[in-house]
Design brief:
- The longest helix has 29 residues.
- This protein is mainly α and 172 residues long.
- The protein is built from six helices and no strands.
C-alpha cells in the first residue's frame, strides 16, 4: 500500500509539473537547460575523480579528456543559459533527424508488417519534428526544450499514476 501511495504522489507531482511547464514553456526551457548544465558539471567532475580509480594510463587519459570536455560543456551551459538554450535546441533537432533516419533504415531491414510500418511512421515523425525545429530556429529555441520537458513530465506522471493504481488494486 505504501508503494502505491508513493507512486500516486510522484505521478501527481510529475503531472502537475508537466502542466505548469506546458503553461510556461520559456521558464521550463531555461530550467531544462540549467538542469542539463548542472548534470554535465556533476558527470564531468565524477569522470575526473574516476581517473584515480583507473588502472591504465590510456583509460586515465581518456577519463581526463572526456571529463574535462563534459565539465567545460556544463560550465558553458550554466554560465550562458540563453546561448545554451540555442545550442541544446540544435542538438535536439539534429538528434531527432538522426534517430528518424535510423528508424527508417531499421524498418527496411525488418520483414514487411506492422512493426515495419510503425518504425517508418515513427521515423517520419522524428524527421518532421527535427525539420520543424530547425526551420523555425532560433525562434523555436524559446519553447522546444520546455515543451519536451512538459511532455516527458506529463507522460511520466500518467504512467506513475497508472502504476500506483495497479499496485493499489493488487494489494486490495
Amino acid at each position: 500500500m505504501k508503494n502505491s501511495i508513493l507512486l500516486l504522489g510522484i505521478g501527481a507531482l510529475s503531472l502537475i509539473g508537466g502542466i505548469i511547464a506546458l503553461l510556461n514553456p520559456l521558464a521550463a526551457t531555461l530550467t531544462a537547460e540549467l538542469l542539463t548544465g548542472y548534470l554535465f558539471i556533476a558527470i564531468g567532475a565524477l569522470m575526473l575523480v574516476s581517473i584515480f580509480a583507473d588502472d591504465s594510463w590510456g583509460s586515465r587519459l581518456l577519463s581526463l579528456v572526456l571529463g574535462a570536455a563534459v565539465l567545460a560543456i556544463g560550465v558553458n551551459l550554466v554560465g550562458n543559459p540563453l546561448q545554451g538554450v540555442l545550442q541544446l535546441t540544435v542538438v535536439v533537432a539534429l538528434l531527432m533527424l538522426f534517430i528518424g533516419v535510423l528508424r527508417i533504415i531499421f524498418a527496411f531491414r525488418l520483414p514487411s508488417g506492422g512493426l515495419r510500418l510503425v518504425l517508418i511512421l515513427s521515423g517520419i515523425i522524428s524527421l518532421v519534428l527535427g525539420g520543424m525545429i530547425l526551420t523555425s530556429f532560433p525562434f523555436s529555441a524559446v519553447v522546444v526544450l520546455g515543451v519536451l520537458l512538459a511532455i516527458e513530465l506529463i507522460s511520466n506522471g500518467i504512467s506513475m499514476i497508472v502504476l500506483g493504481l495497479a499496485a493499489r488494486d493488487q494489494t486490495s
